[in-house]
Amino acid sequence: MSKLATDVTLICIDCVNAERANDVLKKCLAKVAFANTKLLTSLKTDSPFAVTIPHIGSLEEYSQFVVRELCKYFTTSHCLIVQHDGWIINPSAWDDTWLSYDYVGCFNSNWCEPHDDGKGGNGGFSLRSHKLQQLASTVVSKPHPEDVTISFTYRKILEEAGCEFAPNTVQRKFGIECGECTGQFGHHRGWTAKYLARTESSLFVDESQPMFTIITPTYEGRQKSLSRAINSVQDQLCQSFEHLVIFEKEQYMPVDFPRTHALLVKNPTEWGNEQRRIGLKEAKGKRIVFLDDDNILFPRALKEIDEIFADADVVHSPILYDGRKMLQHSFSHGQVDLLQWCIRTDVARQVEFPGQGYDADWAYFSALNSQKALKIAKNFSLIGAHATAIEKTKW
Structural domain of residue 317, as residue ranges? Predict the structure, then answer.
C-alpha cells in the first residue's frame, strides 16, 4: 500500500466555487486513497470533505492562508495541495520516497531552471510537509506569492532549519505546470490535454451528452489549417466535448482524434452553412461552438465559457481578429463572428442556419434574436483567434 493512504492529507482550498473543488477531490480519490481529504472553503456546500475557513477573497489572501494557517488543518506528515486546474493524472507515477522531501512542486522550465539547482516549484499542485508549513508560518513575513516565497525567497532559511526541497529531477516526475503532460503524477495548468484525454475520458467525460458540441465545416486543400483547429480543440482543459468535422470528400476525413467525429456532405454549398446545419442536427452536446477550419480555440476557452454559462442562452466572448486587434462585444453588422458565440443547443436549433454566404453569421443571430430575446452572458477573456489574426501573427 502507498504511504499516501497513511501519511498524506489531500487538500483543496477554494472560496470561489466549492463544487469544482469537490469535483477535483473526487477525481483524485477515484485514483488514489488518502489518509484524509479536506475541502477548505468559506462557501456553503454539501461536499462531505468541507471544512469551514475564513473567506479568501484574493490571491494575496490565499498566500496568507497557505503560509500562516494551512498547518492548522492537517496532522499527517504531508499534505497534497490540488486546485481546480491541477490534479492527479497518473497514480502509477507516485513514489513513496518523495515523502522524504518537505516540498515537491510542479516543474516549470521557465521558473525552476534559472534558479541554481532548479529546486522549488509551483504550488498549485504540490506536496508539503507539516514541518515546512509550521515553520513557514513563523518565519515568513511576506507570504505572496506563497510558492515563490517558500521555494525561493525563504528557502535558504527553511533549509537551514532542516527542510529539504526536491530537486529538478524529482519535480519532473511529480508534476508539470503549463507544459506537456507525459506521464507525471499530476499537473497544474497542463496545457497539452491530449494526454489527459487518453487517461481520463472514460472516468470524467459523459460521451453520451458532452457539455459542448464543436462544429467545423471544411473543404479540400485545407488540411494544414484544419489540423491546427483540431489540435486546438484537443488541447482544451475542459474535455467534455464532441467535435463534429464535416467534410466534402471522404479521403480527407480524420480517424485518430479522441471524441472527433467525421461527417460527410458531398458537394456542399453556401460557404459551410450547409455543414453547420447538419452539425446542429447531429449535435449531442448541451452547447454549440462554431469553429471554422482556419480558426483556433485557446486552451482555456471551453473551461472559461462553462464557468460563466449558468442559465444563459448565449455566452459572447472576444477573439483575436486581424493581427492583434479584437472583436469584442459588438452586435453591429460586420462585427460579429461565429466563433464568439457559444449557444445553448436547444436555442441554436430554433432557427434554420441561413445560406447568405459571408453574411450568414449576422443573419443567423438576427433570426435567433427575432425568435426569442436571448439571455446573453459576457465573457471578457479571449477564447480564440480568427484566421486573419493567425495569418498576420504566423501562429
Answer: 204-393
